[in-house]
Specification:
CATH topology: Rossmann fold
Organism: Microbispora rosea
Number of domains: 1
Structural class: alpha/beta
Order of helices and strands: EHHEHEEEHEHEHEHEEHHE
Shape: globular
CATH class: Alpha Beta
GO molecular function: hydrolase activity, acting on carbon-nitrogen (but not peptide) bonds, in linear amides
Distance between the termini: 26 Å
Largest sheet: 4 strands, mixed
InterPro entries: GlcNAc_PI_deacetylase-related (IPR003737), LmbE-like_dom_sf (IPR024078)
CATH architecture: 3-Layer(aba) Sandwich
Strand content: 15-25%
Mean pLDDT: 90
Number of strands: 11
Pfam families: PIG-L
Helix content: 25-40%
Number of helices: 9
Keywords: Zinc
């Protein structure tokens, strides 16, 4: 089971792994906390955007081979700005949800599916979006309640990310390199490096399904820029997905989501 905050998060962080596990014959279930109705898009915020993004999510899930999509139904909290939340957030915002109640809801799906693996985010929520931080809190607790044996924190290799951001800043000076210095996870804390190059087409199709998130604001956004990368370069740039499994020695290097345990070697 892959637990995400909004539609399109699955495409960016875990799509290759999802496609790989589905191809190997596993039942893959995608759960999102919110419909992403407050995301930046040409479609106005609210129910219309939420419906659009859920339609896109189902297309993405189909491209990845998911057997089921579940919406927990919380409100999109909006993007964090300087540690806060942009604008007036809804009364049912995910960030304001009672963690125990939300965890029980997710745990009921874990139990129903007898899931043996759950992916969440790292404690920082990747780049700090409040809903991503809440995914970590709720997902961690839900796994405890359901007794889910494997919990992986979907993340990005911060060391590699910073190299790319610093290079990009030479051409785009407006990029704030410092904002990435605490994003995601340092390399030595990452336990799983999953090679998903074989599933690059499925991952790209999942990204492309989220058309509403490719543009918005002043022009192309991150997802839109990613989709412009040529195929051979795309496989190289997006051919690895990273996870942290707590309890394993720092520096452990594993290649598959179900790898781990006493036999793991740094």
């Amino acid at each position: 089971m892959f637990f995400h905050a909004h539609p399109d998060d699955e495409a960016l962080l875990t799509a290759g792994t999802m496609a790989m596990l589905a191809d190997e014959g596993h039942r893959v279930v995608l759960v999102v906390a919110t419909a992403g109705e407050r995301g930046l898009a040409e479609v106005p915020h609210g129910e219309e955007l939420g419906r659009t993004r859920m339609d896109e999510l189902h297309r993405s899930a189909a491209a990845l081979g998911c057997a089921r999509v579940v919406l927990l139904g919380y409100g999109d909290s909006g993007l964090a700005i300087d540690g806060g939340v942009a604008g007036e957030r809804p009364d049912d915002a995910f960030i304001d949800a009672d963690i125990e109640e939300a965890a029980q809801r997710l745990a009921s799906v874990l139990k129903e599916e007898t899931a043996d693996l759950l992916t969440i985010y790292d404690p920082a929520g990747g780049y700090g979006h409040p809903d991503h931080v809440q995914v970590y809190r709720v997902g961690s607790r839900a796994a405890e309640i359901a007794g889910t044996p494997i919990v992986l924190e979907a993340t990005v290799d911060r060391d590699l990310l910073l190299k790319g951001v610093r290079l990009a800043s030479r051409f785009y000076p407006a990029i704030d390199v410092r904002s990435f210095e605490r994003a995601y996870s340092p390399r030595d804390s990452i336990t799983h490096r999953v090679n998903v190059r074989k599933y690059a087409k499925a991952k790209r199709a999942a990204m492309a399904a989220h058309a509403s998130q490719a543009t918005g604001g002043d022009g192309d956004r991150t997802l839109g820029a990613m989709l412009k990368i040529p195929g051979f370069a795309y496989r190289f740039v997006f051919g690895t997905e990273w996870y942290v499994r707590r309890g394993l020695p720092r520096g452990t290097r594993l290649r598959h989501p179900f790898d781990g345990g006493p036999q793991a070697t740094p």
